[in-house]
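Anyone able to model this chain together with zinc ion?
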Amino acid sequence: MPLLNRQLLHRETASLFTDRRQEEAGETKRMGVTARSGLFEVCGNPRCKSGWLHLWRSRSAPVFEGGWNCSAECTQERMRFAVRRELEGRADGSRGYRHRMPLGLLMMEQGWITSSQLKTALEAQRSAGEGRLGHFLIRDLGISEDCVTRALSLQWSCPVLPYRCECTDAAGSILPRFFIDAFAALPLRVAAGRLLYLGFEERPDTVLSLGIERMSGLRVENGVVRGSDFRAARKQMLSATFPPGEVLEAVSEPVLVRALARAVERVRPIASRLVRIHDFLWLRMWKRAPTGRVPDAPSIEDVIGSIGI
Ligand SMILES: [Zn+2]
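re: yes, here you go
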């Protein structure tokens, strides 16, 4: 009898996804949430020891990285592999940042500032002990904000993104607030349901944008945003609804694995995925299939974990 219940449940789930996929032309797949198919499920853990007995277990969830887990032990074992994979992967944010021409030199080369203006701004920066060069060029020398933003876009070979406040509600679904705060990046706009414009005030963070691409299935276009626009957009964005989530710092890798696996077992998501962004492991869990271009925040739960030093 439990087997029959499971089969029926899966049939309903499968048709729900199929209809949505037809309606939204593959939206669920784009958002990284794919339906499980087939009546006889196989545990996603290749080292699963429960064999055919798992067919009698009344679990239709959790699903982690495209595979159903038959037991808490299997969830933990698959999480262990996922955490190892992410930690072994490269997440060196400094790559690609070398050999960039300093902003001041670039602006001088373009003829936008003189060498004495650059010298004055550098001295102001040095005596302040902090702050970006662009700030002093604007504040002390009257260089326009647009000019500094244009220089940043040349420096990082990326476009200047206009601030358009279309994405405020979706922002929280795309990026946890923790990352908006930690990396000063703003998801500004989703175009055609598949292209995300990610705005930065100073320089694009390719590790972050690649992580978002892996997590969301969206293609991410990085760009710089004029400083005053960035601050206005950020203020507006922080009023968005963000998915519930927790940030945890574990003392060791096994402790982190157990905490992440426990979260998957508690939430029982229909889809979940682990992606590393710099020193953080981001676990996102979808509790139901997305209904629009981007999922609504309450249908998601995030856990952001790191290993303490
Ligand atoms: Zn299993």
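The pocket of zinc ion is lined by residues 43, 45, 48, 50, 54, 70-71, 74 (CB under 6 Å).
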